[in-house]
Design goal:
31% of the residues lie in helices and 13% in strands. Strands 1-3-2 form a 3-stranded antiparallel beta sheet, with helices on one face. The protein has a single domain (4-95), classed as Phenylalanyl-tRNA Synthetase, Chain B, domain 1, CATH 3.30.56. It contains 2 helices and 3 strands; from the N terminus they run βαββα.
Length: 97
Amino acid sequence: MVDKLIYPAYLDSQKTRMEGRRVPSDIAVENPTVVEIELALNKIGYSSEIEQDKSYSRQPWVRTGRVRVKNSSDSAKNDIVQAVAAYVKAIRNEANR
């Protein structure tokens, strides 16, 4: 069983597609955290684990961490990342109210 990895750069609105953003800019958020990503994954129904001391391969000097999505073989990685981005955006909108 292969776990999927989600880095905060995938959802970051301040990054371009060439810098690693994987979602459309309208659902991307500014400086997402691994805690927000894990919370969104839990709301979607996936079990996950934060790996705090890891860095994204395009920026190995910055340790942003990553989230390991367990038992996700039934879904495509892109579908998971887009759903997480939408939930993180909703979580932030809810917190700002």
